[in-house]
Amino acid sequence: MGFRQPRIELKNNAQMRTMHEAGLVLSRALDAAVAAAVPGVTTKHLDDVFAAVLNEAGAKSNFLGYHGFPATVCTSVNEEVVHGIPGSRVLQDGDIISIDGGAIVDGWHSDSARTVIVGTADPEDQRLSDVTRAAMWRGIAALATGTHVGDIGAAIDDYVSSVPGKPLGILEDYVGHGIGSEMHMAPDVLNYRTTHRGPRIKPGLCLAIEPMLVRGGIETAVLEDDWTVVTTDGKRSCQWEHSVAVHEKGIWVLSAPDGGAEDLVPLGVTPVPIP
């Protein structure tokens, strides 16, 4: 018996340009939230700062109310991997926090995440963030040069495995995804190598590429709030994410003002604006 795969939404150029508009608003909101992540502020304050930028731009949050999620961003601190709920938690010197948010413009979605080390950085936390960020860019570069979505996870896995020093774990329970008229769509974008090549990469494909790495084991659990995912061993974690579009001329990072040029050109990929 054959199984029908979930339909993958392919966007036209005009739709992808609108997604880039959403991505630019999101980038500015993340800039503001990252700048506000200093010792002594609450994670709720970061949410307020992010929301203010969206409101000023006339954009909507795609996180607020999503399956009941109560905030405009996820703030995941230290052992919290993803989906942390902003609240009264006060950031401390040395905390590592992933800020994950999204924006909607004219019905089209963006999704991006950055990791910040608050105040004084533990060198191993800095390494964790640097490797995760670099792995994301290797995955994005693979979207430009590969033939199947599985090439992204293979590139991320190969890079993380090649980094000298203590091995870092790649989470398998949480992965990237398609994005467009909804925030989460087919296909899944794995962050590790498997024998499944995934669907073909073709113009109109838009993906959120988001590796999540940990300093310890990859086992996770969900807290009683039914959202916050933590490492079961209490080791620290990290997430970086960008939304990326494939079009007839190349790729363009929708949530980066320069389309990703600063980080992709050194990897041999020149992003091309959406026609």
> Low-confidence segments, ≥5 residues, pLDDT <50?
none
Strand content bin: 15-25%
Return the string of H and E elements: HHEEEEHHEEEEEEEEEEH
What percent of the residues sit in helical stretches (DSSP H or I)? 25-40%
With strands numbered from the N-terminus, the spatial order across the biggest sheet is 7-6-8-13-14
| Separation of the first and last Cα atoms | 41 Å
CATH class, named Alpha Beta
Structural class assignment = alpha+beta
Q: Find the CATH superfamily.
A: Creatinase/methionine aminopeptidase superfamily
SS summary, helix count:
5
Shape: globular
* Total domains: 1
Q: Strand count, sense and closure of the main sheet?
A: 5 strands, antiparallel
CATH topology: Creatine Amidinohydrolase
Cα Rg: 17 Å
Query: What is the level-2 CATH architecture name?
Result: Alpha-Beta Complex
Summarize model confidence as the mean pLDDT: 97
Number of β-strand runs: 14
Structure description:
It is built from five helices and 14 strands. The longest helix is centred in the N-terminal third of the chain and has 24 residues, at 13-36. Helices cover 29% and strands 23% of the residues. The model has no long low-confidence stretch (mean pLDDT 97). Helix 3 (123-145) packs antiparallel against helix 4 (150-162). It has helices at 13-36, 43-57, 123-145, 150-162, 261-264, and strands spanning 73-77, 80-82, 96-105, 108-117, 169-170, 176-178, 185-189, 206-209, 212-214, 220-222, 229-231, 237-239, 242-247, 250-253. By secondary structure, the protein is α+β, with helices and mostly antiparallel strands.
